[in-house]
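Thought: the user asked what Farnesyl pyrophosphate synthase-like looks like in 3D. I have the sequence; next I should run the structure tool and report back without guessing.
Action: structure_tool
Action Input:
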Amino acid sequence: MSLSMRFVRGFRSSAIWRNTAQSSRADWLNRTQRFNNTVQEIVANVMANGEVAKTPSLAKRLVKLMEYDTLLRVPLQGHMTMMAYEVLENPINLTEQNLYKAQVVACAMELTQSHFLIMDDFEDQSKTRHGRTCWHLLPEVKNLVINDATMFRSLINDILRTHLEDRLYIKMIDIFNKMNLFIAIGQHLDTMIPITKDFSLFTQETYDKIIRYKCTFYCLEVPIMLALVLCQKDSEATFKRVSDIVRDVGALYQMMNDFTEFGDGETISDKTGTDIQAGKCSYFAVKALERATPEQKEIFKASYGSWDPEDVKRIKNLYKELDLISLYKAQHNLKYNRFLKNVNELQSDDVLTPELFLKLMEASQLNKWNIY
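Observation:
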């Protein structure tokens, strides 16, 4: 499963369905319903007036796909995009017309998420999604899943081109194209490294690349970048600052996901990890190779990436011998506190306001994470 998919699933499970001081569950449900209604309206308009309309069977199929995936999820990426826009925009510019443009962009983000999920399920040969049979396993889909996903991505482009003026469209499509490129690079790294079993690639640099390409950029940076473009407050310097601030959040999520490898009562969630068996370039694998003696490295290389329970046990014992849990907790605290420090240093009149990232913390439940 891709890093971005694991991240978003964890993000969704902790973010939306709990009451908070500022956003009740009922409010989020209402926002979700309104957003989904807008998505259906936007998609229907584009398909009725675009190239797809010339092939009614295809239009019907894409609507079914949208209903099967997009409308069954909490649209977190869409909500984050709208949230960022509403915080960053000058209140006098929050007109009905501008809010609708933001909704169009947020809609494109959610359809992009569907595109990624469909392909991720196909690549992983997953069986279910949202409690239903995965799209690629439906009798009328099967090998057409690739074409369906491609058409969905083309629909995203049509939505942006139809609703946005040229200046805005060009900037938006550049961000979406970059996002697709980053996801593809991350997928290559995340998939190919376990296949090659080249342990020289198990470095902090490689791990950081995978997180950035498949997790942080898509899930955290892009919604803010899109909002900045909508507000006409975008610049490469500001994009760089966004990346610097949220980098630690993306790393924290992936490190927490990797912590599920232990499955011994110390884990943060009840999920059981399979990174050891799959030979993933995880936080603990990287740190084990950094700290291991030559003899311990040989044990690691002989056992890592095996589904044999005894090999898995050897790796977990090695992690404990190297005291990687203590290292994990120290790094967790460091990144968490550094993120808070960067946010607290922002000025209230800055383009990137503290409020923006505080809302991000609230949405992700970051302010409730364990500090060791």
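Thought: the tool returned a structure. Summarizing for the user.
Final Answer: Structure for Farnesyl pyrophosphate synthase-like predicted. The chain is about 70% helix and 0% strand. Strands lie at 128-129, 132-133.
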